[in-house]
What we know:
Distance between the termini: 48 Å
Number of helices: 1
Shape: globular
Radius of gyration: 17 Å
Amino acid sequence: MDKERDSQRETLCLAVSPAGAKAATGGSDSTVRLYDLHTHQSILTCQARTVMDGHRSRVFAVTFHPERETEFISAGWDNTIQFWDSRQEQAVRRIWGPHVCGEALHVDAAKNQILSGSCRTHDSLEVWDYGSGLKVCDVSDPQQDSKIYTCHWLGESHMIAGGQANTPAGGQDNTLAVINRNSLQTEGRLGGLGSPVFSSSVCVCGKRSGLIAVSSGTSVYLLDHHK
């Protein structure tokens, strides 16, 4: 590894491959780095060779396809989602649009769709087709324009999105929303928090399936989706 370059790089996100053999990290130097979790060695630096095949700014989100060990995607400040194959250094394709500033990138293997959240007050939560890269829909709340910092699929029927919303009265509300995937309507909301929602996690199996963890400021909130 290039230790001098690593020491100057701020790591901003991490994801582990479905089989648990590899980890991908994104950071402040616009690269995505792949590591072997058995040897703890860097095995690949994924970076742009041209303006079309990699990131040009900070990378804030990276995630593997849940059913494809060699495929992962990343997003960040350069308004792109980049698609990577772990066997090559340059991105294989990209989606233009999302301005991602947090862990707001998630793949649903069942429907082969991507959920992305952007730090902006319009078109901030979007669904994309993984195979074609085409937008499936915008997920908008008519009552609030939200900057999204974190989002996840929640089972087959819902999604969650957290960040900071502008209210109709001109104020701001730090909030996490639970949204129906079919109707695109908000069905639950945790709001009035002291700080924006910057991270969240969903338990996908076992007796805690559907449990949502949310961080805001110095607090962590646990929500039971089924209740």
